[in-house]
Design brief:
Ribosomal Protein S5, domain 2, elongated, about 35% strand, Double Stranded RNA Binding Domain, 2 domains, alpha+beta, four-stranded mixed beta sheet, four-stranded antiparallel beta sheet
Length: about 170
């Protein structure tokens, strides 16, 4: 393991969203285990959500963090917010994400806030619809952030430069 990979491991912040006790009914009675949901991010455009199951809480948390690190995505952050509106969906949960002006802060529930903060977004408006299950909300937010495209990507799709794209969006030609 080289020094750069060690430094990269150090820069990620980890947050545990939920620890839930789960049981499985088997022939001899019930098997007790724990499920942990964790979010990992560097507050600079990279974020991941993961879950882990184990017989003990620390092992479940460790597995959840490892899973989140494996599922990292790059989020386009423009001036501390997201480039456009998006709706993230996961099962019965739906999360609406909207860009906000500087100084607004993060208006979000706990699960959505954790994902958005660790992605490095400082100003955003969100609304959770449907199920309020923390795992589904975190995954819905993650799915929404995964679908975001930067202004440069949209400009490239239309064979324009970013300035022309912004000018066209404001009603000028």
């Amino acid at each position: 393991m080289d020094i750069e990979s060690i430094i990269e491991v150090e820069e990620f912040e980890e947050r545990v969203l939920e620890i839930r006790r789960v049981t499985k009914v088997v022939k001899g009675g019930k098997n007790l285990s724990f499920r942990a949901v964790a979010v990992v991010g560097n507050k600079n455009g990279k974020v991941g959500v993961g879950i882990g199951n184990a017989r003990e809480v620390p092992a479940a948390i460790r597995k959840a963090i490892a899973d989140a690190r494996r599922n990292l995505i790059e989020v386009p952050v423009t001036k501390g917010t997201i480039p456009h509106d998006i709706v993230g969906r996961q099962d019965a949960s739906k999360v609406i994400l909207k860009p906000a002006a500087p100084g607004t802060g993060i208006i979000a529930s706990a699960a959505v806030r954790a994902v958005v903060e660790l992605a490095g977004i400082k100003n955003i408006l969100t609304k959770s619809l449907g199920s309020t299950n923390p795992l589904n909300l975190a995954r819905a937010t993650f799915n929404g952030l995964k679908e975001l495209k930067s202004l440069k990507e949209y400009a490239d799709l239309r064979d324009l430069n970013v300035g022309q794209l912004i000018k066209g969006a404001q009603g000028g030609q």
